[in-house]
Amino acid sequence: MSAAEAVPANAGRKLALARGSQAALFVLAIALVCRLLGAQFEWLMKWPAALTVPMTDWMTWLVGGFLDVFKPIARTFTFLVSYPMEGVGWLLNALPWPMTVALVTALGWTIGGLRMAALGFFGLMFVVFSGYWTEGMNTLALVAVSVPLALLLGTAIGIAAFEFPRVKGAVNALLDVMQTVPTFAYLTPLLVLFGFGPVVGLIASAIYAAPPMARNVLLGLERVDTEIREAAVMSGGTRRQQLFLVELPAATQQIMIGVNQCLMAALSMVIIAAVIGGFQDIGWEVLLTMRKALFGQAFLAGSVIVVFAIIIDRMSAALAEPRPQQDRKVAFGILGAGLLVTLWSVFAGWSPSGFAALDGVAAWVDTGVGTFTGNHGATLDTVKNTSMFYGLLPLRIGLAEAVLPFTWGFMWTAKHTAMLYGVAAVISLILMLKGRVTAGLVVMILAYVAEIGIAHLAWPVVIFGAGAIGWVAGGWKLARLAVILLGLVLISGLWERALLSLYLSGAAVFACAIVGGALGLWSAMSSTAWAIIRPICDLLQTIPLFVFLIPVLMFFQIGEFSAFLAICMYAVVPMIRYTRHGLTSTPDEILEAATASGAGKWQTMFEVRAPFAAPTILLGLNQTVLYAFAMLVIAALIGTTGLGQSIYLALGQADVGLGITAGAAMAILALVADRLVQGFAEERRQALGL
Amino acid sequence: MTDKNSTAPAIAVEDLWQVFGENAAPALRDARGAGDDKAIAKELKDKTLIPAVRAANFEVKSGELFVIMGLSGSGKSTLIRCISRLIEPTAGSVRIDGEDILQASDKRLIDLRRHKLGMVFQHFGLFPHMTVADNVAFPLKMQGAGKAERRARALEVLELVGLKGREDTYPRNLSGGQRQRVGIARSLAVNPDIWFLDEPFSALDPLIRRQLQDEFLNIQATLKKSIVFITHDIQEALKLADRIAIMRDGEIVQIGTPEEIVLHPVDDYVAEFSKDVPKGRHACVESILMDGIPDNMPDDPGIKVGMTLDTALTKCMELYEPVPVRDAAGKVIGAVHPHELANALQAEET
Ligand SMILES: Nc1ncnc2c1ncn2[C@@H]1O[C@H](COP(=O)(O)OP(=O)(O)OP(=O)(O)O)[C@@H](O)[C@H]1O
Ligand SMILES: [Mg+2]
Fold this sequence. Notes:
The complex is a heterodimer of chains A (690) and B (350).
Chain A: H1 3-37, H2 42-45, H3 55-94, H4 97-130, H5 133-163, H6 165-180, H7 183-194, H8 198-222, H9 226-234, H10 239-250, H11 252-272, H12 282-291, H13 295-320, H14 328-348, H15 359-397, H16 399-402, H17 405-408, H18 414-433, H19 437-452, H20 459-491, H21 495-525, H22 527-542, H23 549-556, H24 560-584, H25 588-596, H26 601-635, H27 643-653, H28 656-687
Chain B: E1 11-20, H1 24-31, H2 37-46, E2 50-60, E3 65-70, H3 76-83, E4 91-96, E5 99-100, H4 106-115, E6 117-120, H5 132-143, H6 147-160, H7 176-188, E7 194-198, H8 206-223, E8 226-230, H9 234-240, E9 243-248, E10 251-256, H10 258-263, H11 268-273, E11 303-304, H12 309-315, E12 323-326, E13 332-336, H13 338-347
Helix pairs in contact in B: 5-6, 5-7, 6-7, 12-13
The complex binds adenosine-5'-triphosphate and magnesium ion.
Residues 76-77, 122, 198 of chain B line the site of magnesium ion (MG).
């Protein structure tokens, strides 16, 4: 960066600091007013019921009417789709398992040689021995029908967005919304439209899996080299010939990435959709065994899902890579061997259901977990209770209510409140004297949050706080967006539940930021660490959301802490990846300059790499936020309060109004958080002149 | 070869503008009031628009090889993109064989491109998912030719560019120069009447480059296509061109025969291009004729119209008085001073 550019960047930073202080002061003033006058004016603390708009009812009426109109069409569709679905299901079940194993192994060989063949073979053999063959095949049948639908839909949307620039903006907005609306929220209206049954899962997964495909098709088409495009034009191709003979094939690599993401999304959604029930699939099996606390079985069924996910992911990812041609003969050999074993199995009467060879494992896991929890129950309880009583609970309801004699050993009184604010004021003063005005003000705001708790925060503090952050991160436009969207949630009557969701996801994001940041830093410093952490990250990103619930349930039973852990496990991955990526991708000449100035390893890390990595790390945080919200809804299955629970309840009762409003509220929270963090990332990037 | 309208030039470009940026067309219309082309361009630049081609005016005659030269970013590629209507010009008109191509319907354009126009791209623009043969045969496929015919023709042109035996590899497995030759082969496959070549030999080594240039001149001598050829290499331009246009910042600063460009550059920019060119080999004696014909010329070494300076000088090495220049019929049409001859050749060496 030249000196000429450095000057305005610096000026911008000073301005941002001033903006930050102004915003913090503004929020602090609101907090002060609410704190002092909240007792007299109750409307400050709690939005009056009289002013609440019955959005849920309106939604029920509005969407209900809409759904009634489209129901006949949808039901016809259900009827039509059920044929291919049942057909594929029948086929997969009727096909003798040795033949299926051979087919997948041969496919693996063709795609990626020995490694993929081995993956296919051992993976499917595991499924055979687990005794969940039938359930597994039912799940695969759903995926097999929903994925082509999603691919078709996604490709069509992607092409439309590319061909008609006017459509593109709308499509991008739609895709954004489709990705922030929580998965369960799709299900309720679909349930009403298409009726109970597996078709809903199928359609939900097709809808859920189409956006990644559409995005990648669009991206791929946009990235086709201009001259390749023009060469097709000059050859005299019609627009359709250009598109299908040149541009789409030239974009294959990007499109295959889309196919991979589409497959994974479809699998994930098919398994989530199992909560509707009515279909003997593997997701349902996990849910059932979990509810019965048969953790060994749940673990086994969950492993089957993981195996499917890994096979599908790795094989379709290999498709996107350029690869050598494999020997066809080997593939035919594998198929031949499969055929022989099939014949043999028919004579010997092997049926996949007779292969519950791993029930022993399930039992072993059960006893193992039982013994472990028996022996270390006290430790586990300590972990859980400590985190709950000293971490999560105060965050949720504030120190003033969470500090009780039987946990903390004393009763919170006005004296403690005074002490809390006193200490905060001293720290704040020191910070301000050091010139860090914003930090000082933020400390005071945090003291207020600590006393009151997130779930009890006065609504003006939350809404205008978000507005103020938006103003700092992205100016008036972002501030307005945040205030209006959150205002909608406020008047919808879902505010308290939204705060609960905010609290749990906020706590999880906070934990992820610290743990993920530390792990990312460690991975950046030591390649050994990355060699260990990376495969774990890969695995965690492959596993469908649902499966995360199993291990936490095994050890910590149903409850908020388990949900918190499940969210953290899932949401920590992007934080690790982006932190490491940001820290390791500093341009070489900057590093050399630092070394030449005599900076040590850690000095370089904190003085040079970290500021440079800030925008990337913020993007990681952004992903973590979105992941946390996505998992929050799934975690409702094992005991959370808040919006997730409402969405789940709505599903159980086929309550479209509640399902949609709660889903929308959740999407709003995710969207606002997303925009705020992205605003900061953008601001940092500009400050760095990137 | 189709029957050409004998009166109309192959390509006629009139007041052609290409301005990149938001709302370029209205901005250009507003800027027209500013005065001459330079003033217009300045006004556009002030609005952060990019006038990549400004007020281009020229004609390419049927069967002519027209070369465009200019520094990087001077708008050469943009100009031929406008002519072939790969991008919509902001203003102006382009006629191909008398037909206004900017008014042509999509259908007509497809037709023209299938049968009349061919293009070699600067960065080759090969289709990554097709083999070399499929790449070359693609324009034929668009024409609706059968599979066997396409294959045969593809092999034929591939042999012409020296890529025999590589027809079933993919472009990614070829070197830069080989890829470039695939691009040339592809545009040759349909035998276009009007041919646009954007630095077609830039990635080739000198040997193959010379071979292909000769091959190219051969083709041109027999088929007489109308060609717009972009190059950075003045030697190549002088060797191939009937006429050369020099571009600077989107503007065509001079159009002329190779000799005019070398001997009478309109400004330093143009002169800089031909700085290293041995002028004696490109300029003819007519270019340095004296004013008037002296009455008395004692020597007559036999200087004829069309003789290069080099040849002329060797003939009058030891002479000091003006000598006559005769045309083919032997009639004296002017005179040159041997001293001037030497000067003209020396000027470039300093
Ligand atoms: N699509 C476009 N959008 C905006 N600007 C463009 C576009 N295409 C070209 N330009 C600009 O127009 C100018 C002329 O570009 P052009 O590619 O025609 O140059 P050129 O003479 O072919 O250069 P080179 O010899 O490097 O190929 C350049 O300043 C370029 O940045
Ligand atoms: Mg160019």
